[in-house]
């Protein structure tokens, strides 16, 4: 009895501070709570169709049906995940010809989407790169990257990526920073559809980074969470992966099928490392398994079965490629229409950079006062760094959003 009383009066967690999630989570909650009929969510980080709805792709629906018909059990998969999924993901990530020649040297592990890929990859690196090796991340980057590095015990440092004046890649800043990074550093690179800037590197720039990588023995870690969302073409969006692997650079690759298959609730991704030979690959997989065992034990099978079916069935794969093109083209169209709508309204600013950026995100450059006004007066929700999701724009809301952007920026921009 006494013991019970003591326990009731003693709060073990009274000094624990409130956890603050990233701004995207806050935006989603604020948007959900708003009952204004014309509200717009530009903080959404999964694809939305022209009606503002999440997509359920036909290729995915058909794959789901095929998976159901197999009446599979729900037992644990191997710790590294479903082999058929891992191989299919690697094939699409590295390209068929590289896969055909080198698959036996690529260590792959099914992970919980893009986040899981970065986490497992960073944990592995923390164990096996020399102590003190830093991971360089772009400034800005997906806000979770430095947090994961810290959680995994790695020190992160930013390299310049975005030029706030031109709203394009600051390539000379990037090159200078990578050039001054210590030899052997890990460098995190967004393969395509850079989040949050929408600014991707061109092939000639990737070539220069490749030269720097070789010169400085950099270990490139590609985060490819949006393959297909920049150009609508899987091959083109993976051009950096093709370039680096064909040059014999041992890359690390994180892939997610959350966005490009509309499967974010299934948490399906793949982490892979290019090894020197098959023996090394088996050892690397064994270490990834040891880490994964303590993180999530083994990954969920459902999403992996769906993705594997889409990727391995030629008819569904073809259908998915078409659906991917439609999504990418819609986002491109929204970029152009938004820029044009602002011009037609008479905005004094040059918004053309929005149509020059790629993929699902844009760092608009608008400042805190304008963001506040957009949210409070116009019920348009966006990130506190001025980042918007292009997928949140559609033909029904684009004029309203453009008018609101014009109103809040006509007298001053930042
Ligand atoms: C560049 C980047 N990496 C990783 C993630 C995390 O991806 P996932 O939702 O697949 O875990 C995101 C998601 O927004 C992202 O944009």
TrEMBL record:
UniProt KW Transmembrane helix keyword: no
GO BP: amino acid metabolic process
One Pfam family matching this protein: Aminotran_1_2
Keyword Transferase: yes
GO cellular-component term (any): mitochondrion
Family annotation (InterPro entries): Aminotransferase_I/II_large, Asp_trans
Cofactor: pyridoxal 5'-phosphate
UniProt cross-references to NCBIfam families, sorted A to Z: PRK09257.1 (NF006719)
Record protein name field: Aminotransferase class I/classII large domain-containing protein
């Amino acid at each position: 009895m006494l013991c019970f009383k003591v326990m009731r009066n003693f709060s073990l967690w009274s000094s624990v501070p409130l956890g603050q999630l990233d701004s995207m989570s806050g935006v989603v909650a604020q948007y959900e709570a708003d009952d204004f009929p014309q509200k717009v969510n530009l903080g959404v980080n999964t694809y939305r169709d022209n009606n503002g709805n999440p997509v359920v792709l036909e290729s995915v629906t058909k794959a789901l049906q095929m998976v159901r018909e197999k009446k599979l059990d729900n037992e644990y998969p191997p710790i590294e995940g479903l082999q058929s999924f891992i191989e299919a993901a690697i094939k699409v990530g590295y390209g068929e010809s590289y896969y055909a020649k080198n698959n036996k040297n690529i260590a792959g592990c099914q992970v919980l989407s893009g986040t899981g890929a970065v986490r497992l990859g960073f944990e592995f690196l923390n164990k096996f790169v020399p102590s003190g090796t830093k991971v360089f991340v772009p400034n800005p980057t997906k806000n979770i990257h430095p947090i994961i590095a810290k959680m995994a015990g790695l020190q992160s440092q930013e390299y310049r990526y975005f030029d706030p004046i031109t709203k394009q890649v600051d390539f000379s800043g990037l090159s200078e920073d990578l050039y001054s990074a210590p030899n052997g550093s890990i460098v995190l690179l967004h393969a395509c559809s850079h989040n949050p800037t929408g600014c991707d590197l061109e092939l000639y720039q990737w070539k220069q980074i490749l030269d720097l990588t070789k010169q400085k023995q950099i270990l490139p870690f590609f985060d490819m969470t949006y393959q297909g969302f920049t150009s609508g073409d899987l091959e083109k969006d993976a051009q950096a992966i093709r370039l680096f692997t064909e040059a014999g650079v041992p890359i690390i690759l994180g892939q997610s099928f959350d966005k490009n298959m509309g499967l974010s609730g299934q948490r399906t991704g793949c982490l892979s490392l290019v090894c020197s030979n098959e023996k090394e690959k088996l050892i690397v997989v064994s270490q990834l398994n040891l880490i994964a065992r303590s993180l999530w034990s083994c990954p969920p099978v459902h999403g992996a079965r769906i993705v594997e079916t889409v990727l391995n069935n030629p008819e569904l794969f073809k259908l998915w490629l078409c659906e991917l093109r439609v999504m990418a083209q819609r986002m491109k169209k929204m970029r152009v229409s938004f820029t044009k709508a602002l011009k037609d309204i008479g905005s004094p600013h040059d918004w053309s950079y929005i149509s020059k950026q790629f993929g699902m995100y844009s760092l608009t450059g608008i400042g805190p006062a304008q963001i506040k006004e957009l949210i409070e007066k116009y019920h348009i929700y966006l990130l506190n760094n001025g980042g918007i999701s292009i997928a949140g724009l559609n033909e029904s809301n684009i004029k309203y959003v453009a008018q609101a952007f014009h109103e809040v920026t006509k007298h001053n921009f930042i």
